[in-house]
Structures are given as structure tokens and as C-alpha cells.
Amino acid sequence: MTKPNLFSGMQPSAGSLHLGNYLGALVNWTKMQDDYNAFYCVVDLHAITVAQDPAELRKNTRVTAAQYLAAGIDHNKSALFVQSHVPAHAQLAWVLMTITGFGEAGRMTQFKDKSQKAGSDSTSVGLFTYPILQAADILLYQPKAVPVGEDQRQHIELTRDLAARFNSRFGETFEIPEVVILKETAKIYDLQNPEAKMSKSGDPKGLVNIMDDSDSIMKKIKSAVTDTDGVIKFDREAKPGVSNLLGIHSAISGESIDALVSHFDGKGYGDLKTEVGEVVLSVIEPIRTRANELLADPAELDRLLIKGANKAQELAEVTLATVYERVGFIAPAR
Ligand code: ATP
Ligand code: LTN
């Protein structure tokens, strides 16, 4: 039996992934590659919808790809590739823009948030059409599943609406993809502010980056905010800091929260932090080492990305050719 397709994307927007990205998204992506024919795309076209330094963007694109490979995306099973290497993304986005309502695009909450922060003069039209490019990313690969965080749900709904609209106007062309929302239990919180999710835009002291050195990771975990009652138990409301540490331990070690609470019975917060630090380093250190090896040989890394792009391109071109034919473009003479 052939496996169903899967598509997801990540922005090359930082020099390192953080523990939240890893436990919340990447671990699931690596697991899903056995059951799906997966396409994982580093979305550099999306990254330029806000100002980017060209040298930084190049570096972050490679660093992002290297970390995904290092964390277990297998280039022999899945296509890991860079969006700008497959021109069909921009080409399909144009066609989809012509069937998207202006008001419909204007209702996207991520656009409203980002443009409000930036002000209308520094908000680009590209930021406005960002979700339509995302729809093109997805629909080119006819995926059954699109695994994303809760914040992306509205964009996947738009994608489904555009696919259904195109199909009804021009004939069955696109698979209508299902959104797969990654588990709430894998939500990781800021170590300094454990009511907010761990984020690259949060407090740097509360953020564990995969590419940070081990000493500074241990230091950050040891200075995690807890509380004063000294009891190790799980209660998100009353004890967000301790609960976050237990959640991180459990997500990595696979032990249930109950088992961890019994394990730490009679022990103090210092013991909890040291053990969580050790567990975190046990997964992060090999990923960082492997990512650095990949980055030390950019020619080999680029070769793997081209291999991914070739696989992606094969399918993307077939979908785009069907779309062009359906909308009434004459095929170019060969
Ligand atoms: P950030 O807030 O750090 O910018 P993001 O959601 O904008 O995070 P992306 O690069 O878009 O970052 O995220 C990639 C994936 O990581 C998404 O699927 C997102 O849901 C997931 N993710 C991000 N932060 C966390 C977190 N703290 N806990 C669990 N999953 C997370
Ligand atoms: N917008 C997403 C990144 C993204 C994506 C996609 C995710 C771009 N294209 C296609 C899934 C499918 C984000 O900011 N996380």
C-alpha cells in the first residue's frame, strides 16, 4: 500500500530551534515519517514577508535544515527541502490569490496581529498574502495530513476552503487536507515565566535553545522559576513552574507524571532541576553535535537539500501542470 502524503513547514527565522519547537513539533514529525510520505519544507519565501538580513537568512535556512536532519528527519524517508528551490510554490500561490477574497484574507488573525505590531507603512503586501502561499505549499503535495501548532489552524482552514473552491470551479484537482494539531501535553512553557509558552520572542533566560552550550542550558534550568511550598507535584494553576519541569521530563523520558511525582517524593527542587537538566541534555547534546557536523560540510548539506527538492519538484510540477491546464493556460510549446 502506498502511504498517504503529509506536508508541514517551518520558518528559518532563528539561529536555533528551542525546546518547545523540538518537543511540541519536531518529535511528532519524526514519528509521522514512518506512516506517511512526508514533505518538510523550510519556508524561506515566507521568511521575507518581514525584514531579513540576507546573510542571516542564508545562515538560518541551513541551520534550520541541519537541526531537523539532526533531530531525526530522515532524508531517505522524507523530503526535506527549501521552498525557494521549488518554483511551483510561488506559481501556485499566484493562481490561488485570484480565487481568494480580499476580505477573506483580511480576516487572518496572524496577519492582523503582525501588521498591528508593525504599523501599516512597514506591513508588506507579502505579509497579507502569506497564508495563500502557505495554502499553495500544502496543496501542491496532495497531503492527507498537515501537522501544525494550534496557532496555524486558521491558515489550514483557509487552505481547505481554497482547495474546495478550486475543485468546484475547475473540477477535482486538490485533496482536501486534514489539520493535525499536535498534542497539548507537549506544550513547553518559559522557564522564567511559566504561564507563557516558551518562545524565541520571550525572555532569553527562560528559553532553552538546541544550539546553546550545555553549561548555559544547565544554568537556565537550575534558575527556573518555581514556588515556595517545596512540594513536587503537578498542578498547572497553582504550581506552573514545577509542573513545566515535570512536563519537560515526562515528554523526554516517557515516564508518566504520576511515576515522576512518586520518584521525586521526599526530594527537593534542586534534585528535580538537576535531573531535568540531565534529561534535557541527553537529547539535546547529540542533536547539537550532529547539526554542527552537518553545518561543517555545507556542500553535503546542500546536496541533501537538493535531493529533497528534486523529490518535491516531481510531485509539485504534476499538480501545477494540472492547475494551469484547468484554469485555461495553453501549454508552452516544447
Ligand atoms: P515562537 O513563539 O518561538 O516564535 P512559533 O510557533 O512562532 O514559536 P515556529 O517556528 O512557527 O515558531 O514553530 C514551529 C513549531 O513549533 C510549531 O508547530 C509550533 O506550534 C511549535 N511550538 C512553538 N513553541 C512551542 C512551545 N513552547 N511548546 C510546544 N510547541 C511549540
Ligand atoms: N506559517 C507556518 C509555517 C508554514 C507552514 C506551511 C506550516 C508555512 N507554510 C505549510 C504548515 C504547512 C508557521 O509560521 N509555523
From TrEMBL:
Subcellular location(s) per record: Mitochondrion
Top-level EC class, please? Answer: ligase
Record's InterPro entries? Answer: aa-tRNA-synth_I_CS, aa-tRNA-synth_Ic, Rossmann-like_a/b/a_fold, Trp-tRNA-ligase, Trp-tRNA-ligase_bac-type, Trp-tRNA_synthetase
PROSITE patterns the UniProt entry points to? AA_TRNA_LIGASE_I (PS00178)
Q: Is Protein biosynthesis set as a keyword in this record?
A: yes
A GO MF annotation of the entry reads: ATP binding
Keywords per UniProt: Aminoacyl-tRNA synthetase, ATP-binding, Ligase, Nucleotide-binding, Protein biosynthesis
**Pfam families in the cross-refs:** tRNA-synt_1b
UniProt EC number? 6.1.1.2
The reaction(s) this protein catalyses: tRNA(Trp) + L-tryptophan + ATP = L-tryptophyl-tRNA(Trp) + AMP + diphosphate + H(+)
For whether the record's keyword set contains ATP-binding, the answer is yes
Its Gene Ontology cellular component terms are:
cytosol; mitochondrion
Any one GO BP annotation for this protein:
tryptophanyl-tRNA aminoacylation
HAMAP family referenced in this protein's UniProt entry, alphabetically:
Trp_tRNA_synth_B
State the family it belongs to.
Belongs to the class-I aminoacyl-tRNA synthetase family.
Q: Report the protein name in the record.
A: tryptophan--tRNA ligase
Organism lineage: unclassified sequences, metagenomes, ecological metagenomes
